[in-house]
Fold each of these.
Amino acid sequence: MLQTMKIELKKLDFSLLWRHSHDFYRVLDANRTRLQSYFFWANKKVTPNFSKTILFMIAYVVDTYYKNIKHKIANSAHDAPFVIMRDNSVAGMIGLDNISPISHDAEIWFWVSQENEGLCVATQSIKKIEDYSLNQLNLQSLYASVVYTNERSKSILTRNNYTIEDIKYNVPISRRNPTITNLIKFRKIVTRHNTQPEKRAHCSPL
């Protein structure tokens, strides 16, 4: 008999880090090789041990809070990072960066631990953050910038009805990761008027 998974998105804040710090570090440390090509903070030189990893994440939370305060004062762009919880254990992360109240869009990013691949954890998390972006932030579209060699992310986005909008050559992976590469930009309209049929393909190991 198949057990039903409980997938939740928990906002990354001090309380969550306090309660799940060891679980978060365990998952990060087990997935460094896969993550460090895309997320600079997964590199052992940046977060070499438990203490420095948690300190880095605390600094990230502070930076997010600061951006949210600026957003409330000046209506500027802000971020919303979440931890993906599967049955109350850390399964990865997902978030929205550069949430724009002007263009009504945001950049979506995500990663899922290897032990949670192929279980539709990423797909369910994307659906949840799309609901959040629509119902809580009143956004109209989400976009993702994916390294051209990242077949897993490209496949997940395509399955979830994101389409290629642009390709940029010889650019940094992100504002936090200066590694030069080629990026494929995907986008999806998430307004209430979106009647695009949902692709129900099975979740292969990604």
Amino acid sequence: MTGKPTYEDLERRIKQLELDILEYQRKDMVLNEDLIREIKKRRRVEKELKQVSHGLGERIKELNCLYSISKLRERTDFSLEDILQAILDFIPPAWQYPEITCARIIFDGYEFTTNNYKNSSWKLTRDIRVYSERIGALEVCYLEEKLELDEGPFLREERNLIDAVAERIAKFIEREWAEAEIRKHRNHVERLIKNSSRNISGKTNE
């Protein structure tokens, strides 16, 4: 038969309980710290994934723009003016804020613009050069102020994109000029042949 616990027994049990409680609190604290670290890590990974996903989305838009421009080479029914206007229409969807993006091409004393074009202080500009000579310019503007990024409110990739688009515009113009020169030369040769034929025919009749 067990007797009543002595004062010393009770004191030992209380101390053991206190130790058990402290150990539980310590483990709980460690668990909470691990949980907090895991939550922070997951949030950081989710943020990084979101940034990567956003970046990939922006690169896809840029590639679609360049692909659409390259497809214009197949349009034999388009004049140079048609091509320049089509290129402008491809630009806004490729930028980070399409709804406030507008663009303009200045070339040969003329200008081509998107329907919503307004001159703005938030712009990227790139010279259009053919045979190293400046023949015009391409501008891409935001109609509203945005946060400062790599170059004003624009991404570094958007600078690369406007450079690439301007180079493609230069290639279209260069090709148009070359074809015009070929037509001019062909017409000249045809006139010479026609005149030669007339001269030979006239001498034969004499």
